[in-house]
Amino acid sequence: MATETSQTLDRGLRVLEVLAEAPQGLTVTELSQQMGVNRTVVYRLISTLEQHALVRRDGRGRLCVGLGVLHLASAVQPLLRDLAVPVLRSLAEAIGCTAHLTVADGDEALALAVVEPTWTDYHVAYRVGSRHPLTAGAAGKAISLLSDADTAAYAVTSGELQSGAHGLAAPVRGLEGLRASVGIVTLDGAIDEKLVAPRVLAAAQQVAERLR
Q: What is the average per-residue pLDDT within 123-134?
């Protein structure tokens, strides 16, 4: 039996997806062309989405994702944290390093969940909510692997965000609309990749499975 769907809702969600991939915004004509939908239909969709602050027009009149999307996203963050924390706790205790879930927020990497090991004499204190460019640090570089042609399975960095700190992170793959990574950070010398990388990769896979 065929699944019934709402064409209007589907098109509205598609509008948000297309605009999310166009940081410079789109005109109605450009949006209509990309979606393969009549301009009149696009106008109606945009009008409705604007009423809910999900779409806005910039100073040039180009269409962009609206601030209402941030409100929806903020409601999802606690769920992501709750599902990821048990995996991060196991990773932190097994390796003795601070473990974290990091998500892409525009061009920045946002630390969404952090778990510190309980048995070590010292470890990195990594604050939830901290941000850094996606181009720096293992967490950000691992997220970039999701769209990069690079075939690397994980990213390793040393001293990029904090002097003496070493990081290893793997992308959380297979989740439509979510760009994230799971990683660890330590001050205890260079990371033993043969020991740590398989555990981080497994943790990233576990997080992906919990979020599906």
A: 88
Return the closest-CA partner of residue 167 out of 118, 207, 200.
Answer: 200
Q: Which CATH entry fits the domain spanning 72-211: 3.30.450.40, 1.20.1250.20, 1.20.210.10, 3.10.310.40?
A: 3.30.450.40
Torsion of CA 142, 147, 148, 149, to 10 degrees: 130
Burial of 202 (0-12, 13-18, 19+ CB in 10 A): middle
Q: Does domain 7-66 fall into CATH 1.10.10.10?
A: yes
Q: What pTM was computed for the model?
A: 0.74
pLDDT band at 212 (very low <50, low <70, confident <90, very high): confident
In this predicted structure, the answer to whether residue 150 has a pLDDT above a threshold of 70 is no
